[in-house]
Amino acid sequence: MKFSLQHICAFGLVACLGLLSACQTAPVPPEVARNLASIRNEVEKGRTATIETTARLRSLRDAKPNDLKVMYSAYDASVKSLESKALGVGLVMDFSQDRSDQYFGKWEKDIAQLAEDDTRSRAADRRAEAQASYRDIKSRVADLRVNFRAFMATLKDIHKMVGADTTPAGVKAAQPTIDAVLEREKLVLKDIDALIAAINKVQP
After folding, report:
1. How far is CA 120 from the centre of its chain?
2. What is the CA radius of gyration of the chain?
3. pLDDT at 190
4. Of 42, 63, 122, 137, which has the highest C-beta tally within 10 A?
C-alpha cells in the first residue's frame, strides 16, 4: 500500500501528539524514520567490517615470515569488503536522497491548521525537538564520513605498501602507519557508536 506525503506527515503528527507526555526524545516522521533505520543498518555493517579489517591487520603485523602471504591475502579481502560497505557509498546515497526538509515543512503546515492554541504549541515544540535531533544525526554522519574516509585511506596505503613488499622488512617499514591507523580505529568506532546511539533515541 502506498501513502501520500500528506498521509505520511499527518500520521507523524498524530503519533507525536499522542506521545507528548510519554517520550523524552522527539520521534521523527515515518519517512524520515525509515531513512534513519537504513542508515543505522549500514553503519552497523560498517562497524563489524571495521573490526574485522583491523583484526586482520594486527594478524598481518604480528605474522611470522612464512605466514605473511596468507595474512596479507586475508587483509586484502577485508579491506576490499570494508570499502564496499555502508560507510562508503551507502551514507552518501542516503543523504543525497534525503527529503527530510520536505517532510518537516509539511508537518509544520499541518500543525498550523490545528485549532487549539495549546495543542498547536505543544505540537510545534515536538516538531522542533524532532528536527533538532535529526540535524544532530546528520552532523554526526558528516563527521563520521570524514573520519572514516581518512581511516580508509590509511588502510589502503598499508595495503599498497605491504602488497608491494610482503616481507618482514616491508611490514616493519609499515609499522608506524599500522600503529597509527589502529589508534584511529578507536575514534572511528567511537563516532559510529555515538551515531547509532543518536539514531536509537529517535528510531528505536
Report:
1. 33
2. 22
3. 93
4. 137
Tell me, what DSSP letter sits at residue 29?
A: -
d(CA 189, CA 52): 12
Segment 1-14 shows an average pLDDT of 38
Alpha carbon distance 87, 152 (integer Å)? 10
Cell of 85: 560497505
What pLDDT, on a 0 to 100 scale, did the predictor assign at position 98? 62
Three-class SS of residue 157? helix
**Coil, helix or strand at residue 2:** coil
* Total domains present in the chain: 1
Coil, helix or strand at residue 24:
coil
Range of the domain at 189: 5-20+27-37+44-202
Calculate the alpha carbon distances from 159 to 48, 57, 90, 139, 190 in Å.
19, 9, 23, 30, 24
Are 123 and 114 in contact by the 8 Å Cβ rule? The answer is yes
% of the chain beyond a pLDDT of 90: 40
121, pLDDT greater than 60: yes
